[in-house]
């Protein structure tokens, strides 16, 4: 009996290792509320083909405004700002531009996992019931993992090689602050 359990465990290790290697960047949160500020935690599961991750870039899609990234100890943080395609009412002010990309630069060895956090308001330009995809790129010394593919209507994101991480937008229940 012990031998068969050990044999099963030995057979499972390559499968587990293969699934970890092919793991995609994802968000800890599964849902965000339309019209509310959401905290999003990007989980980076590995480096690039054995190399350490040196930079993590997150592209902020239209409809997500007032973005503020969380600094990470040991990493430098920069934001790229630009014009929104639309104007947005944000607590009585009209916003026409804001953070369009977040860039963390540091070093995350391939053997480790880490999280990169930011918050932003999910506007009504993103329909409740839809998936909000937020492209992310990991840069390494000699390559990159580009989690940027957004599924076409009716396509499953699991069918993509490098799917952008996403969260489901749910309707607000009452007035959101």
TrEMBL record:
CDD domains: YcnI_like (cd08545)
Signal listed as a keyword: yes
Keywords recorded for this protein, A-Z: Signal
Stretches assigned to the YncI copper-binding domain: 24-169
Entry-linked InterPro entries: YcnI-copper_dom (IPR012533), YcnI-like_sf (IPR038507)
Signal peptide: 1-23
Superkingdom, taxonomy of origin: Bacteria
Sequence intervals crossing the membrane: none
Location of region: Disordered: 154-177
Name assigned to this protein: Nuclear export factor GLE1-like protein
Species per Swiss-Prot/TrEMBL record: Polymorphum gilvum (strain LMG 25793 / CGMCC 1.9160 / SL003B-26A1)
Lineage: Bacteria, Pseudomonadati, Pseudomonadota, Alphaproteobacteria, Rhodobacterales
